[in-house]
Design brief:
Length: about 450
């Protein structure tokens, strides 16, 4: 790859409007710019709706075993989604301007060798999400068919996911033309039917835990930030990439969480009973089948972005080889892994890693080294920039000091370490503290203060 400045990469004239043009096979190739606003909006709209999102509404409704009020829950959903979508939109624009996959862009921020650190973290994240998504698809199929061969559902979902990654731009076109419409109809059906059953307020006037609820919503949104450029590098303009990502994801995630919230209120807040709520509605099985089938776009995005991340480490390996191999790995892991009890902690750890990273990325790209005439160096020889690690590390620490991930098992000492740190620094979470907002603002300000040094390549 060559040095990239913060301006759109050259558009391949033969790519525009050609259905045969696909994403590059290796990293060192200019991406075709075939995706307009409708393509981007439909893609991110589909990603904003998920079976996981319905269940994740439980992380908004309940805090420390006590329900939030309906008003607090709905406000947290909207606020958290909008904040997360702004971060997503910023990452989308950077991807369009740089014309490179997300982890390759981090060569400009950290230098090539140092970019391997967030790349490995993103690979782990994407693999984890991919395994979880295949498992959720299988769970949805279990509910749809009243049981059956769970392993077969996992394998079929894995095959469909892998097939979509072979022709990613073609898959996005199918999502725009057919899937987005079907999902919209299904969501409208469930919204109307759930509202017909009535909506009660589980805890009128209770706003305790509002900001942690906002953080949990942001964490889901932010999980897509390190994936965004993998798709928006194919956008025709920065305007279409930002507004496509922001509007599509905002509308769909808010809608998804609200439907999940309505379903939760029908089953006493138990996320394990949401699917049965959908199936209990007359003709609900038909629309639920649509949602189960389209969940493959989530696993597709995770497997494809894993391959894009691996290409930052192995830039000349054919992405088709990577996606087929990674699709097989994710499928096998989904057959073996059954315990997802640490899901909420996983979300917290994702937020702690990628919220401050997105802040450092945005500030350095727009005000630091990325702003100069030459822009960021995205070549394989991009020099290491150790200084950018400082605001990222501080932001990670801020997040953990406010909301330490409640890891268990071999990482069980993690919460106690941060508890000791809180006591030593006399920092304790208050009702007005938000881990996501503080861990974004603090590293952003530090990075901005360091811009004179960062522009010199430090």
């Amino acid at each position: 790859m060559t040095s990239v400045s913060p301006s759109p990469s050259p558009v391949l004239d033969r790519a525009v409007g050609s259905p045969r043009v696909e994403a590059p096979l290796v990293l060192d190739t200019s991406p075709p710019r075939t995706l307009g606003f409708r393509d981007q909006a439909a893609f991110w709209t589909n990603l904003g709706v998920s079976l996981i999102g319905f269940q994740s509404a439980a992380t908004v409704l309940v805090f420390n075993g006590k329900d939030l009020s309906l008003a607090a829950s709905l406000t947290a959903i909207v606020v958290g989604t909008v904040i997360g979508s702004v971060m997503l939109g910023i990452a989308a624009v950077i991807g369009t301007r740089a014309g490179a996959p997300a982890m390759a862009i981090l060569r400009g921020l950290f230098g090539t060798r140092l970019s391997y650190l967030p790349t490995v973290l993103n690979i782990v994240q994407c693999l984890g999400w991919g395994v979880f998504e295949l498992t959720v698809i299988a769970m949805g199929a279990d509910a749809l068919f009243g049981g059956g061969p769970h392993w077969l559902y996992v394998v079929l979902a894995g095959v469909l996911t892998t097939a979509m990654t072979i022709r990613p731009l073609g898959a996005i076109a199918v999502l725009r033309k057919y899937v987005a419409v079907a999902v919209g109809v299904a969501m409208l059906f469930f919204t109307v039917e759930l509202l017909r059953h009535g909506v009660h307020d589980p805890s009128p006037g209770n706003w305790t835990g509002f900001l942690p609820a906002v953080d949990s919503v942001i964490a889901v949104s932010i999980s897509f930030v390190p994936l965004a450029a993998d798709y928006t590098r194919h956008a025709r303009s920065t305007r279409s990439s930002f507004w496509g990502a922001f509007s599509g994801y905002t509308v769909s995630q808010v809608w998804c969480y609200v439907v999940g919230l309505l379903a939760l209120l029908q089953v006493g807040g138990d996320p394990n009973k949401i699917f049965s709520t959908f199936m209990g509605i007359t003709a609900g099985w038909l629309f639920f089948a649509v949602l189960v089938l389209r969940e493959a776009d989530q696993s597709f995005a995770n497997v494809y972005s894993t391959a894009m991340s691996v290409q930052n480490l192995l830039p000349r390996v054919d992405r088709r080889i990577l996606t087929v191999g990674l699709g097989a790995v994710v499928t096998v892991l989904a057959l073996l892994v059954t315990d997802f009890s640490g899901y909420v902690s996983f979300l917290g750890l994702i937020g702690a890693v990628f919220v401050p990273l997105s802040a450092v990325l945005a500030v350095d790209f727009y005000f630091g080294a990325g702003r100069g005439e030459g822009g960021w160096d995205l070549t394989e020889t991009a020099p290491t920039r150790w200084l950018t690690l400082l605001p990222w590390a501080v932001g990670f620490a801020v997040y953990q000091l406010i909301a330490p991930a409640q890891l268990t098992g071999w990482a069980g000492s993690w919460p106690s370490f941060w508890a000791h740190a809180q006591n030593a620094l006399h920092i304790h979470p208050q009702v007005w503290t938000s881990a996501s907002l503080f861990s974004f603002v603090v590293p952003a300000l530090i990075t901005w203060a360091l811009t004179p040094l960062l522009r010199r390549g430090l």
